[in-house]
Amino acid sequence: MRDIYDLIRGQFPVIAAHLREGGGESGLCRKLGVSRAELRHCRRDHPDLAELWRANRCEVAERVEAALLRRATGYEEENGKAVPPDVRAAVFWLKNRRPDRWRDGAGVRDNREAPPVELSEEEKAL
Questions:
Q1: Domain spanning 4-102 has what CATH number?
Q2: Pairing outcome for strands 82-83 and 75-76
Q3: On the CB side of 17, how many CA atoms lie within 13 Å of its CA?
């Protein structure tokens, strides 16, 4: 089996740029001319590649988080135009950051054990 690390160690800047742009593993493998299994084994066996991968993937996630928070809270564009907060972005942020308080159905009680409601004759007729 070829030593994949020898083939890609000179490509670290290409790998970092690909990951920072949000590129995935499959696209990177095509760029490098290696299989996914080969790349995964190399990441496992070479800590410097694993760290490069982690650091650049984290950078992308942080940029997306910052953009989502900005959208959720509203902001002012460079031209002075105010962009109002986006409720869907806020809900998404809160459901992921505070799931104990913002998950679907939070605070909804289970009424299966509630006593049956007595209906009047008038209500039954409806």
A1: 1.10.10
A2: antiparallel
A3: 5
